[in-house]
Structure formats: structure tokens, C-alpha cells
Amino acid sequence: MEQRAIKALLEQVAAGQVDVDDALLRLKMEPFEELGFAKLDSHRGLRQGVAEVIYGAGKTPEQIARIVDAMRSGGQDTILITRMSAEAAAAIDPAHPFTYYEMGRIGIVGSLPAPDGSGKVVVATGGTSDMPVAEEAALTAEALGNEVVRLYDVGVAGLHRLLSHLEELMSANVIIAIAGMEGALASVIGGLADCPVIAVPTSIGYGACFHGLSSLLSMLNSCASGVSVVNIDNGFGAGYLASMINHMGGKQK
């Protein structure tokens, strides 16, 4: 159950519209829903502020569709599905409002929420080949209520391309720097920006990049302060973390 749904239930109790015992029963029944092949964590939104995200890789289209049905029945407005195949997208009930983003392999059931973060999340890539990971990060951040600015193909092989976007970089609340090869983009951005930088190594590159290991090690050894690193190709993890950072201002008020 989402925080909004819990709040609405409590307001109904306060207004005398719902009996206390009935409300208690609904809450007691909420911790998870048994689907046979999965246990839907219905309380995650209450604990973490973000409802469970469906990781699509390894699940059948039918399993994803059933999880979506259960989440919608439970009142979930926006459902994020990562690493989703086109076949799984085709299995979603047409009755659900649904958009599939092929580039980032992201499915979103429901509408994107209005941005309520304290600033902008900038997603920058070294090259066009990094865009699938970047779109996973950007769409994740948007689905979690953030305004996202995309800066694609601004790698260090043509540094003037990045420097032409200094205003966007310096006005960001958090930046996601995505690059393969030697992964230098994160260090360069880290030396320019006054906000947290989340580095995402990608598996883009020739043989000696070892499927992203070279960029991972480069980013871990960045000499720029304020750079953190997520796993190789983990656009979702970067987008989620960026959203948490971008919403910290609301907790401090």
C-alpha cells in the first residue's frame, strides 16, 4: 500500500467513514500478497517511499502481467518495470494505461507523476552507445517524480561538447554520468559540478574494456571528490539513487 493510500485510509478513519477495526484488518493484510510464483511486497512504499519495482529479466511475460494486475488492484498508480522485453510488454492487459520504452527496456504502467524533487537530475553519457543505460536511468528517475535533463554524446573525445552544457551541469541537484571505454566522463563532470555525481560504467568498448570492468575501475579510482559508483550497466540503480538524493530536501523541512 502506498503512503498516499495509507494516509487516505487514516483520514477516512478520522472522519468516521471507516471503522477502526476494518482499517486495522486492511493494514494487517497488506505486508505482502502471495501470487504463488512471487510475494508482492505491498508495504515497500510505506517503508521506503517507493513501491516495489518489477525486475523484468528472467520473468515470463505472463508473470509480469500478473504482478502488474495485482499491483493495480492494490491501488498502485505508477508501476515501473525494468529490463522488460517487447514480448512482455505485449502481454500487459490493454485495459491498463501502459507505455513501453524500447531504448531503455522500461515499461511504465500509469502516468508519470509530476516532478516533486528539490531540483533537476542531469543524465549525461559519453556516447550514443550508452543511451540504453541512460534511458533506464532517466526513465527511472522520471517515474519516481524527478525532472530530468538529458545530455547525450558529450564524452571526453570531444570535450567541447560537454563544456557547452556548463549551465545545465552547474544548476543540477544530482548528475548521473554514464560512460564505457575508460569511463573518464565521471571524473571530468565531478571536477565541474558542486552536486553529487553518480557514475555508471557501461559494458561499451573494445576487448580490453572487459565488458565494462575497465570503466568501473576507472570510476572507482576517480580523483574527483563527490563521485559515487554503481554497478556496470545499472541505470536503474543510478536513477533510483538520484531520486533519493533529489528528494532529501523535503525530509529536512
Automatic annotation (TrEMBL):
SUPFAM superfamilies: N5-CAIR mutase (phosphoribosylaminoimidazole carboxylase, PurE)
GO molecular function terms noted in the UniProt entry: hydrolase activity
Signal sequence bounds: none
Domain PurE: 119-251
Domain of life assignment: Bacteria
A GO BP entry: 'de novo' IMP biosynthetic process
One Pfam entry name: AIRC
PANTHER family given in the database record: PHOSPHORIBOSYLAMINOIMIDAZOLE CARBOXYLASE-RELATED, SLL1489 PROTEIN
This protein's name: PurE domain-containing protein
Native source organism of the sequence: Flavonifractor plautii 1_3_50AFAA
